[in-house]
Amino acid sequence: MKKRNKSVPEGMRDLLFEECLARGDVETRLAKAFELRGYKEVMTSGLEFMEVCDPEVSGIAPESMYKLTDRPGRLIVMRPDSTLPIARLAATRLLGHALPLRLYYVQPVWRSNPGLAGLQDENMQAGIELMGAAGIRADLEVLTTAVEALSTCVPDFRLELGHAGFFRALAAQLPIDEDVREDIRSSIESKNYAALDAILDGLPPSQAVDAMRRLPRLFGGEEVFAEAESVCPQETTAGPLSYLHKVYHAIQDLGLGERVIVDLGLVQRNDYYSGIVFTAYTEGYGDSVLMGGRYDNLLSHFGRPMPATGFAINVDALTRIALRKGYALLSPEVLVYSEKGYAVKALQYARQCAQAGVLCETSAAETLEDAKAEAQSRGIRRLVIVGKTQQEVLL
Q1: pLDDT in tens, 262-288
Q2: What is the DSSP string of 338-382?
Q3: In angstroms, rounded to a whole number, what is the distance separating the alpha carbons of residues 109 and 119?
């Protein structure tokens, strides 16, 4: 059997030095942005019962979850999503807390991707959940928090704004089953016009079919709303379109118009979204770095119905972008070498340096010459020799 004791499973990776520094910086920036908006941190268990992530509710395919069993043989999964366990938390341990709940998290999620897809199965996420608040004020709070949080890490990004109810209203008028509906959704999401046309060509002609065919092309600014009104059945799509238009105008009034475009072809996979949906892209990364939206029906699954909205940011994506800009590790300013019998005294000196904010290390070298060579090879200019007396050598 081929040994795997020197590798990690496919889709996983180790982080070293600058990567840890850059990720920690991204996490700190995002957490501060959330806290300044009044959000409180929570952490959920890395393992959840399968029922928490029920595919019928979450829209997460069972084959994409990492599954195992506990001692009694019950099926559990490694956390594939942060919103679902936080919804569980809101319905249990947070029952006595006043609404709305403003919660944020920084924690990993795990999803199994197809082999050779080049995707990571383990990803660090940071995000917020605003639970117990409905309406445009709550939606705008979450949208502006998303913009503010991303702005602390990347200067240039684009936020695409859509409405989950728009696609659902059109799909409900088509004579299709769930499998075909998912094929249509996937084709629109990837803007695969050929695949979409192939599916729709097999359906009876109707206004809904024509509107669905146009959906992936309905993106841009103010002009999108007029175009959508001209091609979509008003009796079913007027409500979502009108609300989206109202949110878009409010975003303009907030001065965020340059960052936001409308995309009616934004049809995210998670089935729990019920209203406004949005995603963000930035230069230098080929996939979305943020995804979110309103999910007013999800909390009913946990026995505590309430409106809710939120978003998740891909911390690892922002980390890669930060690393391309360059991240320098701080080198020790002082190397402390102890003569024989003075190791404790040397450690006491190093502790004093740390308390004073001076970055230092203690040398494990056996001889002074080896300690000097160690300092020179690492670019440390100050070598402190601790013995019966104490002296400092500049190298």
Answers
A1: 998 888 665 689 999 999 999 878 889
A2: E-TT-HHHHHHHHHHHHHTT--EEE---SSHHHHHHHHHHTT--E
A3: 13
pLDDT over 70 (residue 332)? yes
Its pTM surpasses 0.85 = yes
Percent share of the chain, pLDDT over 70: 97
Q: Given the DSSP bridges, would you call strands 360-362 and 219-220 parallel, antiparallel or unpaired?
A: unpaired
CA distance 310 to 143: 9
Other Cβ atoms closer than 10 A to 232: 25
Q: In sequence order, which residues have a C-beta less than 8 Å from that of residue 262 and are 6 or more positions away? A: 160, 161, 162, 218, 219, 220, 221, 224, 225, 244, 248
Asked if residues 195 and 201 have their Cβ atoms less than 8 Å apart, the reply is: no
Longest dimension (CA), the chain: 94
Cis peptide before 100 (omega within 30 of 0): yes
Q: Which residues pair with 162 in a beta bridge?
A: 277
Q: Which residues contact 295 (CB under 8 A, 6 or more apart)?
A: 83, 270, 272, 273, 274, 275, 308, 309, 310
Give CA–CA dist 87/79, Å, rounded: 13
d(CA 322, CA 12): 20
User: How far apart are alpha carbons 298 and 205 in whole angstroms?
Assistant: 34
Give per-residue pLDDT as tens, 11-69: 899 999 999 999 999 999 999 999 999 999 999 999 999 999 998 888 888 999 999 99
Tell me phi and psi for residue 206, to 5 degrees.
Answer: -165, 165
Exposed (0-12), middle (13-18) or buried (19+): which is 331, by Cβ within 10 Å? exposed
What DSSP line would sit under 8-72, residue for residue?
--TT-----THHHHHHHHHHHHHHHHHHTTT-EE----SEEEGGGG-HHHH---GGGS-EEE-TT
**Cα–Cα distance between 312 and 128 in angstroms, integer?**
7
The CA distance from 130 to 309, in Å, is: 5
In tens, the pLDDT along 201-219 reads: 888 988 888 888 888 888 8
Strand order in the sheet with 75-78: 47-49, 75-78, 67-69
Quickly count: other Cβ atoms within 10 Å of residue 56's Cβ: 7
| Sheet strands side by side (includes 260-263) | 40-41, 101-110, 122-131, 308-314, 290-294, 276-282, 157-163, 260-263, 219-220
Region 68-97 average pLDDT? 96
Q: How far apart are CA 280 and CA 108, in angstroms?
A: 19
